[in-house]
């Protein structure tokens, strides 16, 4: 690092007893430096592609909380491109997905794209709707597949932590309807929330998907429908061969959902 600083004629790091930190100049150069490294990776991966091999690393970020079958997508991608090394990041919410992709820390993401931020490019793949999951013993109207939003006020609820995207959306719906939520549990892990519904602890507002058919659980589509777009998130720049290949797999998955 000292040699690099000498060649540039700049002080990039401040060295103290507490450790090494970037200087203001170093922080200014970190973004273009990261871009150069990414361009070099794309160059190397493109050369591999010319030899018929899609290789390299793919930094992927996606939420575990929506209806897209990310496991199926990743499995198909690995089957098609076994030489690509995946680095998967689990974000706190969709907002973090946008920030990671915009900053160049992840190559491609899957997220709810209705509230995408400037600096990213999004492409819709599918949509999802919200359902109310309740323990089957609590279902007073088993003949009805739908239920009004106001019904959620009658159940103790499992909700995401305050400040998360999904919590803000739920609080916004409640405010618009003039209802008060009975928050029994705050939890950010979807699988644990599903198990709590199954155990009869509380109800859970989530996206429609495989959880709709869990034993001991009833899913009610919330009316009026709340439809959210789900799609691919990139920086909108030239993608690496690995990112382009992943995007193609997602497109194929999305096409299969409509068939």
TrEMBL record:
UniProt keyword annotation of Aminoacyl-tRNA synthetase present: no
InterPro entries: HTH-type_LysR_regulators, LysR_HTH_N, LysR_subst-bd, WH-like_DNA-bd_sf, WH_DNA-bd_sf
One Pfam family cited in the UniProt record for this chain: LysR_substrate
Keywords on record: DNA-binding, Transcription, Transcription regulation
Highest taxon of source: Bacteria
Gene Ontology CC: one annotated term: cytosol
Record-level Gene Ontology MF annotations: DNA binding; DNA-binding transcription factor activity
Residue ranges of the TM segments: none
Domain HTH lysR-type: residue ranges: 1-23
The keyword tRNA processing is annotated on this UniProt entry: no
Family listed: Belongs to the LysR transcriptional regulatory family.
Protein name listed in UniProt: DNA-binding transcriptional LysR family regulator
Originating species: Nocardia globerula
């Amino acid at each position: 690092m000292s040699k690099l600083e000498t060649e540039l004629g700049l002080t990039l790091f401040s060295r103290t007893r507490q450790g090494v930190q970037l200087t203001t100049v170093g922080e200014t150069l970190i973004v273009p430096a990261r871009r150069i490294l990414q361009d070099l990776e794309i160059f190397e991966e493109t050369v591999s592609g010319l030899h018929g091999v899609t290789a390299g690393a793919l930094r992927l970020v996606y939420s575990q909380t929506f209806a897209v079958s990310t496991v199926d997508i990743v499995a198909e991608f690995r089957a098609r491109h076994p030489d690509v090394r995946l680095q998967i990041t689990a974000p706190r919410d969709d907002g973090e997905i946008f920030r990671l992709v915009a900053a160049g820390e992840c190559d491609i993401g899957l997220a709810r794209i209705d509230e995408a931020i400037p600096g990213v490019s999004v492409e819709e793949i599918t949509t999802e709707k919200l359902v109310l999951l309740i323990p089957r013993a609590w279902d007073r109207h088993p003949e009805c597949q739908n239920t009004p939003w106001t019904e959620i006020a009658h159940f103790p609820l499992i909700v995401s932590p305050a400040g998360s995207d999904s919590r803000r959306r739920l609080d916004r719906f409640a405010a618009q309807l003039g209802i008060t939520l009975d928050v029994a549990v705050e939890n950010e892990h979807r699988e644990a929330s599903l198990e709590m519904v199954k155990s009869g602890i509380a109800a859970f507002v989530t996206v429609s998907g495989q959880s709709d058919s869990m034993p001991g659980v009833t899913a009610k589509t919330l009316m009026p429908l709340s439809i959210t777009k789900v799609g691919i998130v990139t920086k909108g720049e030239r993608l690496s061969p690995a990112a382009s290949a992943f995007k193609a797999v997602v497109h194929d998955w999305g096409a299969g959902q409509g068939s």
